[in-house]
Amino acid sequence: MYDRILFPTDGSDGATRVLDHVLDIASAHGATVHLLNVADTTRDSLVRIRGEVVDVLEQEGEDVLEDVTERAGARGVETVSTVVQGEPYRTIVEYADEYDIDLIVMPTHGRSGLERLLLGSTTERVVRRAEVPVLTVRPDADGPLRYPYRGGGRPDRRQRGGQRGALGGRRRGHRGGSRPVRAVGHHLPVARH
């Protein structure tokens, strides 16, 4: 079902907590996980070290992906790691299109408070613009996330108060004037063990 899963990560606590769930999905489907870090070009990140110009955000991104790649390797999950510059939501959507990604998995939030209010949510923008399904996962839930999900997409009594993810995206091949195919208000329950 999923051969290529995109996991954009900024190294935040939320993304780190969601990683094991991404690896569970990849293991279950024998999928390759594309690890993507976007060095946000809307922020100034160049510094000079010993006369050499270094992009701090790209270096941080490489460090983040190195750690994530090691965790995936320990689980036997194949990865492709990429650090690119750009506007995060736009770069994620373009990457998914270019590499024929089957599923994007993202935490529901990384920023908080005023910064999120002013800048908006990268995850929300990806859900609205992606041509492929986007699984959003709340990283702040109690207990571990489990895949596969129980209950055929509907929570049972034990799961109703638990962690849920939402799918969104657009249909492949329906560009231009197509309307988003989003499961607004539809949540996939996450099993707790």
pLDDT averaged over residues? 75
Whole-number total of structural domains: 1
Approximate strand percentage: 15-25%
CATH superfamily heading: HUPs
Helix content: 25-40%
Number of helices: 5
Output the radius of gyration: 17 Å
Characterization of the model:
- The structure is a single chain.
- The protein has helices at about 15-30, 55-75, 90-100, 115-120, 120-130, and strands at about 5-10, 30-40, 45-50, 50-55, 80-85, 105, 135, 165-170, 190.
- The chain has a seven-stranded mixed sheet with strand order 5-2-1-6-7-8-9, with helices on both faces.
- With about 190 residues, the chain is of the alpha/beta class.
- The protein is globular, with a radius of gyration of 17 Å.
- It has a single domain (about 5-145), classed as HUPs (Rossmann fold), CATH 3.40.50.
- It has five helices and nine strands.
List the helices and strands and how they pair.
Elements: E1 4-8, H1 13-29, E2 32-40, E3 46-49, E4 52-55, H2 56-74, E5 79-86, H3 88-98, E6 103-107, H4 113-119, H5 122-129, E7 134-137, E8 164-168, E9 188-189
Parallel strand pairs: 1-2, 1-6, 2-5, 6-7
Antiparallel strand pairs: 3-4, 7-8, 8-9
Descriptive labels:
9 strands, disordered C terminus, Rossmann fold, seven-stranded mixed beta sheet
Quick structural gist:
Helices cover 32% and strands 24% of the residues. The chain is an alpha/beta fold and 193 residues long.
